[in-house]
User: What shape does this take?
Amino acid sequence: MTTLVHDGRVLTPAAADPTGPGVDFRTELLTSVNFRRVHAGARPLTPDGRLDAAAQRHAADLAAHDLLQQDGTDGSTPWHRIRAAGFAFRFAAELIAPADSVPRAVQLWMNSPRHRDAVLDPRFDHLGTGFAPGRSGAPCRYVLTLGQSDGRPHTAVTQ
Assistant: This one.
């Protein structure tokens, strides 16, 4: 296993099952994504609760309806969900994975050139994560929301 050190912190890819007791999938996703970013020469991302809210909203919607799509069942787009959560951005991306573990979700993203490019994009400085268990044996839904703040004060937008 490779170990990277960034700003005095040791970064290692996580390998635990996020559905297990006491496991924090947000920390596991953050660590896994940042491990890959630092290894590729990009700076680590900072978690953002507003992006978490946008990602979690979409993960729950996708799992409840057994879907894999960018638009929500209410017609919302990733950009709408991110803005509605109060995150004003210059750049943003949303990644979805049908998987039963964080390592599998990250593997799916990293094996897709388009998704890998988004994970490693140096413009992004914040991330949010969402997770929802699948229904009736369907895979869980993981959502990764990436953003670069536009520097303006953030306020939630009513829908």
